[in-house]
Design brief:
This protein has helices at residues 31-41, 57-67, 82-90, 112-125, 166-178, 186-191, 212-224, and strands at 3-9, 25-26, 29-30, 45-52, 72-77, 99-104, 127-133, 140-142, 145-148, 156-165, 198-201. By secondary structure, the chain is an alpha/beta fold. It has one domain: Alpha-Beta Complex (Spore Coat Polysaccharide Biosynthesis Protein SpsA, Chain A). The strands form 3 sheets. The protein has a 7-stranded mixed sheet, sandwiched between helices. Strand 2 and strand 3 form a beta hairpin. The relative contact order is 0.18. The mean pLDDT is 95.
């Protein structure tokens, strides 16, 4: 099945003190360069679409040329929210696409084998996301008082990519637009129209670069591979 990868990296990087995290150096490339390489190596991915800020297009395309990313199709500008950014990316996918893989551009350590694994699960269940079991005990707190302790074995940390059959995802987009809904998580969009999303177990190295400390952790993890 032909799968289009939408790599979303149009955020303002506010927690990185104004530094655009996707363009930070990482290993022999940058954060976005490593992310693109993972999808380049994933056999099921047929095209890569980057959703980013317009001012970052040239730097991203420079990495594409440097790394010889043959599956790169285009850059397109992000929207005011994550969901709007994804919708902008959807406008660029090929008509022949069967599956849509949506990934955070700031998750540069995702492994190609896990991309393949989640695509395979999504082709069976209609939608799937990478994730890992929660290690710590989670508490629900209100006014600094613990009100509940969820059952830990049922809790997962959701990662990306999140992959869906094209028909299902478009149905979710239409529903969200019709009802004025805006989701920060693509699984929520599909869940809103009654579909169950499969949790594909990943590993704990698929971290998201959010703060300056994360890039140091990513460097260590990259060197240990």
């Amino acid at each position: 099945m032909k799968t289009s990868a939408l790599i979303v990296c149009a955020g303002k990087s506010e927690r990185m003190k104004g530094v655009n995290k996707i363009l930070l150096p990482l290993g022999n490339s940058t954060v976005i360069g490593n992310t693109m390489l993972a999808f380049e190596k994933a056999e099921s991915i047929t095209e890569i679409i980057i959703v980013a800020r317009q001012q970052d297009f040239d730097a991203i395309k420079s990495e594409v040329e440097k790394l010889n990313i043959s599956k790169f199709k285009t850059c397109t500008e992000g929207g005011a929210t994550r969901q709007q950014s994804v919708i902008n990316g959807l406008k660029c996918i090929s008509k022949e696409t069967d599956m849509i893989s949506i990934h955070d551009g700031a998750r540069p350590l995702v492994k190609p084998e896990y991309i393949e694994k989640v695509i395979k699960d999504a082709s069976v269940f209609g939608g799937a996301t990478l994730g890992v079991p929660v290690k710590d005990t989670i508490k629900v707190v209100s006014d600094n008082l613990i009100t509940d302790t969820p059952y830990r074995p049922s809790l997962y940390i959701t990662q990306t990519p999140q992959v869906f059959k094209k028909k299902i995802y478009f149905e979710g987009v239409d529903f969200s637009i019709e009802h004025g809904l805006d989701f920060t998580d693509d699984c929520q969009l599909v869940e809103a129209i009654g579909y169950k999303v499969y949790m594909t177990e990943s590993d704990y190295t698929n971290i998201k670069i959010t703060t300056p400390e994360d890039i140091k952790i990513a460097e260590v993890l990259l060197c240990s591979e």
